[in-house]
Structure formats: structure tokens, C-alpha cells
Amino acid sequence: MKTIIEHIADSVSRAFEECGYDTKYAKITLSNRPDLCEYQCSGAMAAAKAYGKAPFVIADEIVGKLKGDEIFEKLESVKPGFININVSSQFLAQYLEEMSVSEKFGYVPKVSGKTVIVDYGGANAAKPLHVGHLRSAVIGESVKRIQKYAGNNAIGDVHLGDWGLQMGLIIEELRDREPELVYFDENYTGEYPQEPPFTISELEEIYPAASAKSKEDEHFLARAHESTLKLQRGDRACRAIWEHIMNLSKADLKKNYDNLNVNFEIWKGESDAEPYISDMVQSMLDSGLAYESQGAVVVDIQEDTDTKELPPCIIRKSDGAALYATSDLATLVEREKLYHPDAYIYLADKRQELHFTQVFRVAKKAGIVKPETDMTFVGFGTMNGKDGKPFKTRSGGVMRLENLISDIQDAVYAKITENRTMDEAEARDTARIVGLAALKYGDLSNQASKDYVFDVERFASFEGNTGPYILYTIVRIKSILAKYIQEGGSVSGLKLIPAAGVSEKNLSLSLVRFFDVMEAAYMEKAPHKICQYIYDVSNAFNGFYHDTKILSEQNREQKESYIALISLTKEILLDCIDLLGIECPERM
Length: 588
Description:
By secondary structure, the chain is α/β, with parallel strands linked by helices. The protein has helices at about 5-20, 45-50, 55-65, 90-100, 135-150, 165-175, 200-215, 220-230, 235-260, 270-285, 325-340, 355-365, 400-415, 425-445, 455-460, 465-485, 500-510, 515-525, 525-545, 555-580, and strands at about 30, 40, 70-80, 80-85, 115-120, 155, 290-295, 295-300, 315, 345-350, 375-380, 385, 450-455. The strands form four sheets. Strands 1-2-4-3 form a four-stranded antiparallel beta sheet. A four-stranded parallel beta sheet has the order 6-5-10-11, sandwiched between helices. A three-stranded antiparallel beta sheet has the order 7-8-9. Strand 5 (about 115-120), helix 5 (about 135-150) and strand 6 (about 155) form a beta-alpha-beta unit. It is globular and about 90 Å long. It starts with a helix and ends in a 9-residue tail after the last helix. The mean pLDDT is about 95.
């Protein structure tokens, strides 16, 4: 299905061609002055120099040629050479009819059908999720959903940190606390217990205690390094403890990600890449791509087109240890073997840009991925407190993510119960849904690369550009449709007729932008574009709602058209919030 801009451009292109001008000048854009017109063409300005004519003369010719075209309600040539365009309400109604019966409202991406790996987890085993994990989780989930909506086979990977020093620290702290455990008996040859020697709560207390101890006790730190090495070399006892840690951690992380409405197709970690590292590094050495520098193994990534100097990528330290880059490259080896992706999208703090530049370039130089494979890094900014610094608890610590979610749900619950119209259970469930929407929309409505201020009161507000405002709009539409059905009406098979008023046409114009917004969000990996769109649609609907007596309209044809329009509005909004990982309650 063509976008409405493409329909307009087709007509305008024909006019340029018939007037003897190159059709490349027939570009159509949304008007940045909606008080003057809906769409605009400024091609006459660019064509003037090429054809040696005043731009307003060319604009006058084009407008004259377009007179009588049924797509247009108004055409104006405005000096010095702009063409102002309003589309006809009849054409709009027909276009919306086509949208309403088309899959995904007629959205067909220009490029799709790819296998795309989306790496957006990065949580560490044995550690609870905290506020620092929020952005990668919610942005990554939305990017993945947009990829799927566009027709790609998008695979989300949590990519756990499960193979580093924290494992050795936990093992040695456990040894100090419970030395009698069979894992620490060198003469034990039997099967290790199926039940872990700790709960998830105990595990989450063990790690910070071990970390603090390692900063003061060099001997303990050395033991932890030794246990980490033993684990990575396959020691039976260390591997058994590690498996306990992973089973508990994964279950707890899945529960917390589920609470965020974030889901991963695969749950792999750095440990899964370990078997590929040795052969990968040796292959780079054998090919001459990698070389030794001060005992370490490095790969140069500098290219002639770079405007600044980029350091080599270290893939093995002088002591033989692997680094994050090594693990990420070996993970690519595994992903290529298992999934054969056409593209990769990585979500991480924007300060890791150099790391991913190094990894992407080495991967292509080494032939780990094909030259044409699209590799994208989506770097995000920080979530800050009102002081402009990274968000902390009142005591100055890093807040657990579940506590942050609880805080915003409590704020929403307080607003819901100000005018209590539902029982306690429904109020709590509604607060859960709306609170999560407030949190996620508050994050996603910002461009990913930008820092933003977390403000519970603003995010939980039912007014302004917030998640609760969007949901309240959808709930309002649901309520109108429910009353219409109760009165004996049906919402299927209704016909849209041309808009009767300004606010109705404004709503129609906002809906027909769906295709363009989706394509931009997909190509640019930009959920904030969907947020801005649904805010615009919500405002347009509420303007229409306040101007129009929908259910009391006496003209049946007009009333059915209103219902058809708001039904389409609801469906588009529901698809959009689903792409953000947001649900909608039945009432608020």
C-alpha cells in the first residue's frame, strides 16, 4: 500500500513531467506550518536555477496543471515558489478505509525478511537487575518488536555476564563460609547435590560481600582469580557451583524481565563463547591479521577514512586472559554458526561506542561475518535524577530495578484511588499496567542517545506526553465503543465518509502518517518516533472527542463513520503501544 505522500508525489511528479521539468523536484513533505497547509512541495525553488526561471513561475505552472485532481482540496502557489497542498476529505476517507482492511494498516517495509540478532541484555549472573539495566532492556525490546513487525526474524539474546571474576569471588566466599561442603573436598568423587547450597537471596548477598573483601584482601582476590581460571578450564567442583549459580540467576532474571514485559528468545552468556576463543585467536594470528604487541595479541582497526586515531583491538592480554572484545567476537563466531544472521543490533551505553567499533571492524576483517552484514550499535544515554547525575537511591546507592518499578506503581495507585471507582484488586492490577507504561514510555519517548531525567510525578501524570495519558486515551475510546455496542451497534463493516469538521480531519491526517512513522522507526531503530506519533494521534483524538457528540449524533451514516474512525484509531494505538512493550487496561 502506498503512503499518502507517495500518492501526492505521483500526481505532482506527473505535473512536473508534463510541464517539462525533472520529476526529481516533485518531493513532498509534511508542512511545518499546519496553519497554512497540510503538505508542501518546494521543488520549484530548486528547479528555478536549473531551468533559468523564477521559482514562482514554475510553481504557478505546476498548480495550474494539477487543478481538477481529485486528491486535492486546496492547491496554492505561494511566493517565492512554494506549493501548498491540502488533500481532499473524500480521498482521506477512502485511504483510511483501505488502511482499516489491510494487514498492519497497509504498512509494507521497503526491506524485510532478514534474520536479525538483537543483543540487549548484558545482565550479570548472581547480581540483581538495577536501574542501569532499564534502558538496554526497554529500548532493546522495542527495537526487536519493531523488527518483527517489519517482517524480520528478530532474535533477542540476553547475553549474560556469566564467565568472569564474579564467579571466582562467589566460589571462594562460599568456601570461607561453608568449608565443609563437598565441593571443597578434593577427595570427593561422587555426584554433586542437585539442590544449590544457597538461595537467590543468599547469593545476592554473597557477591557484594566477596567483592568488598577482594578490595581489602589480596590473598582472597588471588584465590578468586585462581577459581575463575579453574572454572574456565573445566574443574568439576567449580563447574557444579557455577551451574547452581546460573540456574538460580536465570530463574530470578527471567522473573524480573517478565515484570518489565521484556522477553528473550535465547539465554546465552559469555560462557557459550568460550569454546570458540582459542581457535579464533589462533586463526587471526595465522592469517597475519593479529600480531603480538608488548605480550598482548592485537588487531589494527584504523582505516584511511577515519578522522581520529583509533587504538588497536586487544583480543588477548599478555597473561593469556580473554577480554570483553574476545568474548564478543567469539559470540559472533557462534551466532554465525547457529543462526546465519543478516544483521546485528547491539544495545549498550553510548560510552561503549569505541568497543563496538573495534569488535565490528575485527569481525569483518577476520571474515567472522560477511562483508555485507549490517552491524549497528545503538548507544543510549543515562537515566539521571533531578540533580542531573545518574539516578541513585536516597542513600546514594544504585536502586534495584524491582524497587524502581514498585515506586512508580505506588505513585500511579495513589492517583487511581483519589477518585476510587474500582476495588482494591483491580486498582492494584491497573496500577501495575499503568505504572509500567509510565516507566517505559518515560524512557522510550526520549531519543535513545540522549540522557533524561527520571521524574516519578511527571511520568505518572495522566496529562501531557506520558504513558498514562496515552493509555487513558485508548481506554476512553474503548469506553465509547463499548457503549455503542451496548446500544445495539456493531463496529464491523462500517463505512467512513469525508470528515465533517476540522478536528475530524486532523485526526484522519494523523492516522495516515502511520506508514511513514513505522518505516522511520524501523530503519533508524528509533522507538521515540513511535512515542511522538501516538502522542500526536492521542492529542488529535482528544481534540475530536471534545468537538464532537459521537454517540448522540442523529445522522446514522455520520455516527457510523465516527465509530469507524475511532475504531481505527484504537487499533493503531494498540499496535503502537505493543511495539513499545506496553499493555493497556480495560479501564482507568
